[in-house]
Structure prediction request, 220 residues.
Amino acid sequence: MDNQFSLKNYSRSKLAMPNNEKKLLLHSCCAPCAGEIMEAVAASDIQTTVYFYNPNIHPREEYEIRKDENKRFCEKLGFNFIDADYDKDNWFERIKGLENEPERGKRCTECFDMRFERSALFAHENDFRVYATTLGISRWKNMDQINKSGKRAAKRYSDIHYWDFNWRKKGGSSRMIEISKREEFYQQEYCGCVYSLRDTNKWRKKNNKDRIIRGIKFYN
Ligand code: SF4
Prediction:
């Protein structure tokens, strides 16, 4: 029998995790990226815990908005939500020297590595065998770069597998937008770090567009 997130809503078939595992730790970057994936795993009866570890997001108010949106959707779906550390000082330390890298460059690799290393550690310490991330569903991201980081972090533990499923395919990208609109999720306008905010505003200025005003835009 279908559960409330019926697979009839999906053009993809029931998801199967690596090694037929049933329990997933899902690193989540934000509600819009997580929404479609969360419904897809719920429809596939995969027991999922959402792990919110994103010390890259600045400033703090922006971080709290993104986190709360994700938490709200977890509560709606009945998923466990792990609110991990906001250790932004460690993030800045790790990124030192890479402040002027372009998006999808070396800074982003470090940023992914840091978030996935912590996710893999949590998985290892809490009896998960598989972890995945919501980051790859965004068309702004380089999926190969994300998957390489995901696998690198998993390799630290013999019992952890990184699930590199392509969430964009079979309607995933359009469902991501549909769900964001239906849920009226907060719509962030920059990737997350202070450098992405700086560079997006630079691009906007050059293209005669208004600067980003944080905290006001929602999908509708
Ligand atoms: S642009 Fe995004 S992925 Fe890259 S370092 Fe900044 S927050 Fe991390």
